[in-house]
Amino acid sequence: MLAGAPIMYIPYQTMTLGDLHIRLATTAGAGSLIIGVLLIVLGLTMWFQPQSRVFAGVATILLALVSLVVSNFGAFIVGFLLALIGGALGVSWAPGRPVVEEPADERGADDGPSGAPAAPAGPSLVKE
């Protein structure tokens, strides 16, 4: 989601250096806007629909590569790197399994997790 903002904003930005106004808008300005909106939508998809995270991650990586050509070198590499990292995290992330613990009543108070008596915490100082 963070990658979409610089890719949408920077190509339409007008910078001022003294009396000189520099406009970065190119003929592909609409393409930058579309790529930025799609990156934000894919970020929201990864967030709210984790089962489609691999598709959204791959699509994010592809849009990051396209943004290099379309929107001023991926909005001066900032948007490109954010999209690339976000897409890679989306592809590699997997939701964890919920931890289910037994209630304390069903196992003994001194028993370990498997029901066996708990082992001493450290070496014993008592001589036999």
UniProtKB/TrEMBL annotation:
Biased composition annotated in UniProt, kind: Low complexity: 111-128
Keyword Membrane (UniProt): yes
InterPro entries in the record: DUF6114
Keyword match Transmembrane helix: yes
Recorded superkingdom: Bacteria
Residue spans crossing the bilayer: 20-42, 54-70
Short name of one Pfam family: DUF6114
Stretch list, region Disordered: 100-128
Keywords tagged on the record: Membrane, Transmembrane, Transmembrane helix
Protein's name in the database: Integral membrane protein
Organism the protein comes from: Streptomyces thioluteus
